[in-house]
Amino acid sequence: MSQSPQTLVDLAAKVTELSQSLTKLISDNGMKAPTLEADSVTSYEGMTAEIFLMRQQLVDVLNDMNILAQGPSESIFNYVHNCMPDTAVLNILNYFDFWAAVPVDGSASYQDIAKHTNLPLDVVRRVLEHGITLQLFARAEQPSHVKHTSRSAALAKSAGLKALVSTILDDAGPPMSVMTEALRRYSVGKQELTTDMRENAFTLFHSGAPYGRKYANSWEFIENDGEGERKGWRQRNFVTFMNYLKDIFRLENVIKDSYDWKAAGKATVVDLGGSGGHDAFVLAKAFPDLDITVQDLPEAGPVFEKDVPAELKSRVRFMAHDFFKPQTVQADIYMIKLILHDWPDAESIKILRGLIPALRPGSKVLFVDYVGKQGNAAELPRSIQQMGTATDMRMMALFNAEERPVEAWKEIFRKADERFEIQRVDANALTFYVAIEAVWRG
Ligand SMILES: C[S@@+](CC[C@H](N)C(=O)[O-])C[C@H]1O[C@@H](n2cnc3c(N)ncnc32)[C@H](O)[C@@H]1O
């Protein structure tokens, strides 16, 4: 049965209904509703699954209203006109830390900001003028002064949010602008997307060495960009970003629930590609018998050393290790969390095979990853689906990789080596995470 078309007024009624229900739920849960002012809460802290779902339904209706309010053609025109300047301005404000140039409870002049950011006054003014249209800063009472809004203040208050913007816009954003050319060169006329890592938008974008040298992949770039003390700044930033993701998506429980750590007892664990150790710290605190080696690229090391709590130092350590090289640490459990989705199948298989030299019969591999593609995806609000589809596009641009369904991960284990026996698969539809436990039968 076809539905009658939705009008602006129908949608406005839905917005009212959802806004009222959401406001009530927020208040019933003792939470504070955000405002547009600088002193607002920075997020829906303490949000339940019900509130999250309702909020995303509201976002969907608002997005549809936005289309109807403009009309189909102009909704495209306005989007196309604005989206690149919008992201460029957010990235500039973030990169040059305009956030810290303005006191959260006061205002700053364009001149002050130019001094703080070391940018020409005219550039500061023009960037801010566009930022203000996005609720990133607002005009203050004094002429040529700006003050924070809740959005810019959130970035001033949170190093994690700032790191997220930097990683997604400044590291991963530019290659996405050449996806058309990468697809034209390497994938047009083929049955499937090329999975050759030399044939993606990242390598095409970096082939002209815009940052001073050519980088083979995103990790090499993140690890090596910058001179002198600045070298590795993108990796340090990335570590902060991953830590922030853990906090906002409350991944502590995903990590703790992904395995029966208590039953594991006095186990040794390698956290492969464990970044600055945020997951290892969670596990070591909750399970005092675990002994964990965090392995990652060298520039994650200094962040680990800065962050590792003193009481965990005897049980949690950092080791620089390239996971494409043979594993040298013998452990009971190898955790691989949010690693393989960054790589095409061939590289994912290589990473799993890299473990084999250290595996003993009974060694466990615990794979934990985000499942952007769920069977029930089409039933979810579109704004939730976008979380998976947007990551999927980013994976395509950077790595020729993709968000995979659970079955595909099992297949990767099987292709890596028949001696990996999958013992458990836990896909959680609410958290979007899957945990796969494999035992080595070598
Ligand atoms: C998406 S992050 C996941 C971090 C962490 N496991 C988590 O779940 O939060 C991917 C990690 O892989 C690391 N990585 C990339 N290439 C690597 C390599 N060749 N050897 C070791 N680590 C690598 C990156 O530095 C980064 O910390």
From TrEMBL:
The keyword Oxidoreductase does not apply. GO terms for molecular function: O-methyltransferase activity. This is S-adenosyl-L-methionine-dependent methyltransferase. The keyword Transferase applies. It comes from Stachybotrys elegans. One of its GO terms (biological process) is methylation. Residues 241-416 form the O-methyltransferase C-terminal domain. It holds the Pfam family Methyltransf_2. InterPro entries: COMT-like, COMT_C, SAM-dependent_MTases_sf. Keywords: Methyltransferase, S-adenosyl-L-methionine, Transferase. It comes from the Eukaryota.
